[in-house]
Write a structure and sequence with these properties.
This protein has eleven helices and four strands, in the order H-H-H-H-H-H-H-H-H-E-H-E-E-H-E. It is α+β, with helices and mostly antiparallel strands. The longest helix has 25 residues, at 162-186.
């Protein structure tokens, strides 16, 4: 898991410029590559910090991290990613990571069946976290990978060998690639711009890093060849798109299940791209769960007032959707 997220951090850092260049959905703000990179970096560094057993620390559940438990390790990474998630893509990947850890809890070895279960749980949770999910995004890529993994694993008849695991990983990456290619025809904005979805490509890279880390093989350098909009000479398409008004609001807040449902409904009325996902599996003494909240709204004040009427938000961030755009496509030092 450490090798996977470390590879993904490097790969997304290397590809952030091109991912930003084709980022036009749901808003053309050219930051998907940077957001995914920063979110995966948070996950990877959480595991680096936990390398020594004496530094394992305590989870929010109050239980010590088990560094030889695949699920516990991945949950630690997922929680760090969720706490520091950036943008739509980073938030959805954090949901994916947290959900994937659940079927792996208590296991010290990854098998084809466990991986298939993890990918399936992760894609379902990611779809359900978004109030208005649509195909043609990284959600479609997650779903395709999960379905392919399940189909191949079903044909293994309980074979838990490394060979079976490799077959499942290969199938997941191949299906993810096919899903990325299909994104162009699934969303009008992508079809008009003649590009594939940036978040989908980022998810494909992450899955190939998983395959590479588990099997001890090199990344597939030809994986992205031919994807529309992804050649280095292609323009930064997002710079020619109309600027998006409004802001992105993100925070973490403790809410009862009823208050969480109320908040989602009211945020849906105020804006769009609403993502709400539970952070950690346990409730506090008052029956409240911690939630990570993401929404795009024209004005942050009504949204923040609504959130504060239900609880005390932490880690609040408000970012303009119409970000300054650099035609050269340079990513900030932090984004690299």
């Amino acid at each position: 898991m450490k090798r996977w997220l470390g590879k993904a951090e490097t790969a997304l850092g290397n590809h952030s410029d091109r991912l930003n260049a084709i980022n036009i959905f749901p808003v053309a703000d050219g930051d998907t590559g940077t957001n995914l990179y920063l979110t995966v970096r948070a996950a990877a560094r959480a595991l680096q910090d936990a390398a020594a057993p004496s530094d394992a620390g305590q989870e929010h559940t109050g239980q010590p991290a088990q560094l030889n438990d695949v699920g516990a390790v991945l949950a630690r990474a997922g929680q760090a990613a969720m706490e520091q998630a950036k943008g739509n893509s980073g938030t959805l990947f954090s949901v994916f990571l947290c959900a994937a850890s659940e079927p792996l809890a208590g296991h010290t070895r990854l098998t084809s069946s466990l991986l298939a279960a993890a990918l399936n749980r992760a894609q379902i949770r990611a779809w359900s976290a978004l109030s208005d999910p649509v195909p043609g995004t990284m959600l479609s890529v997650m779903e395709a990978a999960g379905r392919a993994a399940a189909a191949v694993d079903a044909g293994q008849n309980g074979n838990h060998s490394n060979h079976a695991l490799g077959l499942v990983l290969d199938a997941a990456v191949e299906a993810a690639l096919e899903a990325v290619v299909r994104t162009e025809g699934q969303l009008d904005a992508l079809q008009a711009a003649h590009v594939v979805d940036a978040g989908g490509v980022g998810m494909l890279l992450i899955l190939d890093c998983l395959r590479s880390a588990v099997l001890g093989e090199e990344l597939n350098n030809e994986l992205l060849d031919g994807l529309h909009g992804y050649d280095v000479q292609d323009p930064h398409i997002h710079t020619g798109m109309p600027a998006d008004d409004g802001v992105e609001v993100m925070c973490t807040i403790s809410l009862s299940p009823l208050d969480a449902a109320t908040l989602r409904q009211r945020l849906d009325e105020l804006g769009d791209s609403v993502i709400m996902s539970q952070v950690g599996p346990s409730a506090d003494a008052e029956g409240r769960y911690r939630w990570r909240v993401h929404v795009h709204v024209p004005d942050p004040v009504p949204a923040l007032d609504m959130i504060r009427s239900l609880g005390a938000p932490a880690d609040v961030s408000v970012s303009d959707l119409a970000l300054p755009r650099d035609p050269s496509g340079e990513v900030s030092a932090e984004g690299r």
